[in-house]
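Morning - S-adenosyl-L-homocysteine inputs below, output right after.
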Amino acid sequence: MGKTKTGKVYLVGSGPGDPELLTIKAKRLIEAADVVLFDQLPGKAILDMLPERAEKIDVGKYAGDHTLPQDKINELLVERAREGKTVVRLKGGDPYLFGRGGEEAVELAAAGIEFEVVPGITSAIAVPAYAGIPVTHRDHASAVIFITGHEDPIKEDSALDWRWLSEFDGTLVILMGVSELEKNVQELLSHGKDPDTPVAVIERGTRPDERVTAGVLRNIVNEAKKRGVRAPAIIVIGGVVKLHELLGEQ
Ligand code: SAH
């Protein structure tokens, strides 16, 4: 018997949750996969599309209720590819915007495993869009910054320059920001950001149970608490949020 052919890993973005926002390529690869590694971020509608015959590994709820550590996910990807399998690592939104897709790619490259990234529609743009918020608009913002609201707790200093972010007059889009909402809003206010800057928090965007909580920097923490806002949510800060009233909920 000859040497088994090594398989290939596809780092596939699943978009923000509406299954019609899945790319044609993502759909084709999901349907052809031998193994799919996933977590819950893609959402039920997409996870329901995983093929019956594939080995499905929920790395978000592995062995009881624990998230599989990143190095174990990397190991699994390498291991299954070496078995000759076609592996799909399904990731919410776009694989290379937060969510550690870049780290997985580096590991695969280091292990000499063939891989391909399949970009997805990122929640950072699509979730505001469904809520009637264009992230740029000539009257409101000509630049946009994507921020992680939840930095590695092991890091001693924030990698984020809050003074600079407070002075920036484009749109700020915060991902993974629900648990640290109060802290991040405080950072902006204490560095001089206008308390009347419009803010929207969009939970479960593009999904049937999407919910938008709108306010301004000064009151958004209370509004979010009152409504029991939960992850996953996108936080949008800036003048473009004013368009939500006109363009949202059409
Ligand atoms: N790679 C992903 C982001 C991964 S980080 C992307 O490009 O979309 C995880 C964060 O994504 C969540 O904490 C949340 O801020 C955001 N997110 C992903 N899907 C979302 C959705 N449907 N609604 C709201 N936020 C979402």
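Note: The chain has a mean pLDDT of 93.

O.
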